[in-house]
Specification:
The complex is a heterodimer of chains A (434) and B (500). Chain A is of the alpha/beta class and 434 residues long. Chain A contains 15 helices and 14 strands. Chain A is globular and about 75 Å long. Residues 28-35 and 415-423 of chain A have low confidence and may be disordered. Chain B is α/β, with parallel strands linked by helices and 500 residues long. Chain B folds into two domains: 16-221, Rossmann fold; 229-423, Phosphoglycerate mutase-like (Rossmann fold). Chain B is built from 14 helices and 13 strands. Chain B has helices at 28-41, 51-58, 73-95, 111-124, 138-149, 160-175, 210-221, 238-242, 253-269, 282-289, 314-320, 322-330, 343-359, 369-380; strands at 2-4, 16-21, 46-50, 101-105, 127-134, 192-196, 201-205, 229-233, 275-278, 296-297, 363-367, 396-403, 406-413. In chain B, strand 6 and strand 7 (201-205) form a beta hairpin. Classes of the chains: A alpha/beta (434), B alpha/beta (500). The interface between A and B is large, with 57 and 58 residues. Strand 12 of chain A pairs antiparallel with strand 1 of chain B, so a sheet runs across the interface.
Chain lengths: 434, 500
């Protein structure tokens, strides 16, 4: 029979209400916002070499971590390199090289063991198992392993037969691999092509019929088309959406803050002031800089605050205003100086230093809240090509943290190079580093 | 997001024609309507053009499946004509009436028909995105027929068994000619999604842009499992009692009583697996606490931010900010509180909640007045204009159950008194679309009424360039069949123009 509701207490840092007992918070499940993963998920990459599996693994891991899902990748090739100190040739990968097969299987099992450690003891939610996993036999081993441990499995297969793309992949990431540090480029390419051949005969692609009960996405021709089968839950649905929005067309993203504002001059945070004289000068310089960059089809985004819009106005190009790009809401501390905050809200001031990422201003936001509201921006940045984002300090830190793969802790501390002056524009040209 | 032109013309995205593909009873109209409702809610003007309705207008009285036989030339002509008229209305909607997306809801099962549509789109610089629904599960097909076909105007004079039989034969008429989308060859350069077995599997080809990407994501998250969504506000709060808006106050004694009554109500519903969601404001969490079940706190479910007006009474707002007060009454949907939010902002922030509600099954959402209005507007297909005035009283649970093409709503008052926080539309409030309306801004629109009038006099205008001139069709006047009787129609054959 229902009794009167429990008393609530508010966590002073995060400003989250929780039930309490005699003023002390009770342990309570599901306090966070959407619980995205209820049981750990094992993402299993599938595909021939040089099909972008590691590129996808790393990018996906970076994205999941940024949105707050602890994720880690396990690259079996890396385990192999640690075990077999020097790589001699493609012959290691010949299907009849029993010694090679034994080592490779051992590496996979070791990696799986580390996966279990990560998902079990270390509190990880998602593990990305990056290897070719090209045979049903191998995939069955992984499925059994997952079943034994209560993990969900989601396969991500990359299929590509375009020789140009494969060629470009090899040049970009394989030639500088430790495997080929003693080879010249031509030898390396030749060897790698033979390596791919070793896998081709035994490659069993994921099949609509034979694998109909597995959850997977098959990415074909770098995202030209997709086959999606049996998406089980929220996180798999988000992963599919993300994978369907990323691309590999070369492009540049430019991030900068608005020009110096009147409130910046006064040392006050938040608010909606206009540009100072120097801020207007910056806007003009930005305009000049952008013209000189001669960027093809540049999209310009601003927040809905006066100072970013004024900055964009100086560019004399169309721009889009996004409310979600507005600066972090400092709640009761809006328009105060840090001195005033320390005076009027000494506890808040101290709490913020304790955990700047999770700290939420009273009636305001935290960096953690920012990440949630910026996720559509990240998704759209992935879809777009050349973009200039004129935003704010905290916003820019969050966006940079995504691109530079900074952890939540580091996120809030990214020292933007222009703490003193605001006239710097950061250009991110995305490259894959293996 | 909101687009502003600093200099030069505004670059609009080309309008898009979404073309449904699939045999009858595969959920095309269900998907069309649901997708349209979603797109309108997120502010993309969208309209459905259901060719079956055009056909019903043209051929007043449906006799039997013979109409759909592929060798019935007269009927083929009529059906093609209907498609052309519908396309002409699509053109008008997208070019002249400010529509952004048109959903062309018909079987479109042959390449010939789809090529005609592609040609039409090319002539008008529209993008095309196909949505094909493939399902061979006889149970699903039968359930569809039961739920939406038996009650169709086509079968109003038939008993269920006869109707079912006729409809099955109707499906057969299409099967022989059905050419599914072929990603490997014929359709490899076409943008489409194949939805297979009600969402078990999807095949996606060549997504071109943002809106197609969102459509794909939406389609991949919806399902047809029976379930119920319960929407309610927190129990009456201390601030409610004082007539103050916003803030983060706790429940009043009556509010606590409501929480207990809500717990009892939920128990009586006897649901398996109910998810409970609250906002991060104390009053909604306190309400959920009484349920003694796990709940999830969502910040996006927090009440609308009243900015500088937080914690004030309406009288105080009227005194302190008289212009703001007046502005809000003038246009409550777009009005944004200084340093706060508007209903329009709310819709944008609630979109992930809607998406997750679509994924889930039984959910109880304990939220707030403005938030509940936004969510309700999505489920009940209400426009931006109506949204801020939807009635969401305290201590009342709205139970939403998907049924046929829409949502059934039941209102359950839990018999605990509370203050009334509803403010009626004022005299100054505009009743039409605001002049502030911009393209691509988030402005929910109610899905427009279907256009279904076949304009007999203007057939000549509606011929697509590829089809040649079609003669006027004549349908012989025959008395309607007696109840229970499915009359085999006889159509006089006219000149032999090949049509679909």
């Amino acid at each position: 029979m229902a009794t009167s509701p429990r008393e609530l207490t508010q966590n002073p840092l995060k400003k989250i209400w929780m039930p309490c007992n005699n003023g002390l918070p009770e342990k309570h499940t599901s306090q966070r916002k959407v619980c995205m993963t209820n049981c750990p998920t094992l993402i299993v990459m599938v595909g021939l070499p040089a099909r972008g599996k590691t590129y996808i693994s790393k990018k996906l891991t970076r994205y999941l971590n940024w949105i707050g899902v602890p994720t880690k990748e396990f690259n079996v090739g890396q385990y192999r390199r640690n075990f077999v100190k020097t790589y001699k040739s493609f012959e290691f990968f010949l299907p009849d090289n029993e010694e090679g097969l034994k080592i490779r299987k051992q590496c996979a099992l070791t990696a799986l063991n580390d996966v279990r450690q990560y998902l079990g003891v270390e509190g990880g939610h998602v593990a990305v198992f990056d290897a070719t996993n090209a045979t049903r036999e191998r995939r069955d081993i992984i499925l059994k392993f997952a079943e034994m441990n209560g993990y969900k499995v989601f396969f991500v297969e990359s299929v590509c037969e375009d020789p140009e793309i494969i060629g470009a992949n090899i040049v970009q990431v394989k030639l500088c691999s430790p495997d080929y540090m003693n080879c010249n480029n031509d030898e390396a390419v030749e060897d790698f092509m033979k390596r791919i051949e070793c896998y081709k005969n035994s490659y069993q692609t994921l099949d609509e019929v034979l694998d109909k009960d597995l959850s997977f996405i098959k990415i074909m021709d770098v995202g030209r088309r997709y086959l999606v089968n049996q998406v089980l839950d929220h996180i798999q649905s988000r992963i599919v959406y993300y994978l369907m929005n990323i691309h590999i067309t070369p492009r540049s993203i430019y991030l900068c803050r608005h020009g110096e504002s009147e409130l910046n001059l006064k040392g006050r945070i938040g608010g909606d002031s206009g540009l100072s004289l120097r801020g207007k000068e910056f806007a003009r310089c930005l305009g000049k800089f952008i013209k000189e960059q001669n960027i093809n089809d540049l999209k310009v985004w601003t927040s809905q605050m006066k100072r970013t819009i004024q900055t964009a106005e100086a560019l004399s190009v169309p721009y889009e205003q996004w409310k979600v790009l507005n600066e972090i809401d400092a709640g009761v501390c809006e328009e105060m100086t840090y001195e005033e905050i320390q005076e009027h809200y000494p506890l808040e001031f101290a709490l913020r230093d304790q955990d700047k990422y999770r700290y939420r201003y009273p009636k305001g936001e935290s960096y953690e809240d920012l990440v949630q509201r910026l996720e559509p921006v990240i998704m759209e940045l992935e879809r777009q090509e050349n973009v200039l984002v004129i935003c704010h300090q905290a916003i820019m830190r969050c966006l940079l943290a995504y691109f530079l793969d900074k952890s939540a802790g580091a996120n809030a501390k990214i020292l933007l190079p222009f703490r003193v002056s605001v006239n710097v524009c950061i250009n991110i040209t995305l490259t894959c580093v293996v | 997001f909101y687009s502003l032109v600093a200099a030069g013309p505004h670059l609009t995205n080309s309008p898009t024609v979404i073309v449904m593909v699939g045999l009858p009873a595969r959920g095309k109209t269900y998907i069309s309507k649901k997708l349209t409702r979603y797109l309108n809610w997120i502010g993309v003007p969208t309209k459905v053009f259901n060719v079956g309705e055009y056909r019903r207008e043209a051929v007043k009285c449906y006799r039997s499946y013979d109409f759909f036989r592929s060798d019935n030339e007269e009927a083929m002509r009529i059906r093609k004509q209907c498609a052309l008229v519908a396309l002409s209305d699509v053109k008008s909607y997208l070019s002249v009436e400010g529509g952004q997306i048109a959903v062309f809801d018909a079987t479109n099962t042959t390449r010939e028909r789809r090529d005609m549509i592609l040609e039409f789109a090319k002539e008008n610089a529209f993008k095309v995105f196909f949505i094909e629904s493939i399902c061979d599960d006889p149970n699903v097909v039968a359930t569809n027929i039961m739920e939406v076909k038996l009650s169709s105007p086509d079968y109003k004079d038939c008993n269920n068994t006869d109707a079912l039989q006729d409809f099955m034969k109707r499906i057969q008429c299409y099967k022989a000619m059905y050419q599914p989308l072929d990603p490997d060859n014929y359709d490899k350069d076409t943008s489409f999604i194949k939805v297979i077995d009600v969402g078990r599997r999807f095949f996606v080809n060549k997504v071109q842009d943002y809106i197609q990407s969102k459509i794909v994501y939406y389609l991949m998250n919806i399902h047809i499992q029976p379930r119920a969504i319960y929407l309610c506000r927190h129990g009456e709060s201390e601030y409610n009692l004082k007539g103050r808006i916003g803030g983060d106050s706790g429940l009043s004694p009556r509010g606590k009583k409501f929480a207990i009554a809500l717990a009892r109500f939920v128990e009586d519903q006897n649901l398996k697996n109910l998810k409970v969601w609250t906002s991060q404001l104390k009053r909604s969490i306190q309400t959920a606490e009484a349920l003694k079940a796990p709940y999830e706190q969502w910040k996006v479910l927090n009440e609308i931010d009243a900015g500088v007006c937080e914690d004030m009474t309406y009288e105080e707002i009227g005194e302190t900010y008289p212009e703001e007060y007046a502005l809000r009454d003038q246009d409550k949907y777009y009005y944004r509180y200084p340093t706060g939010e508007s209903y329009q902002d709310l819709v944008q922030r609630l979109e992930p909640a809607i998406m997750e509600l679509e994924r889930q099954e039984n959910v109880l959402v304990v939220c707030h007045q403005a938030v509940m209005r936004c969510l309700l507007a999505y489920f009940l297909d209400k426009s931006a204009d109506e949204m801020p005035y939807l009635k969401c009283p305290l201590h009342t649970v709205l139970k939403l159950t998907p049924v046929a093409y829409g949502c059934k709503v039941e209102s359950i008052y839990l018999n605990v008194e509370a203050v009334n926080t509803h403010r009626e539309r004022s005299e100054d409030s505009k009743k039409g679309p605001s002049p502030l309306m911009r393209r691509n801004s988030v402005t929910p629109l109610t899905s427009p009424e279907p256009t279904k009038k076949l304009r007999i006099n203007s057939f000549d205008e509606h011929t697509a360039s590829t089809s040649g001139v079609l003669p006027v069709c004549m349908v012989s006047e025959v008395s309607p069949p007696l109840p229970g009787q499915v009359r085999l129609g006889v159509f006089s054959s006219l000149a032999s123009t090949k049509g679909i």
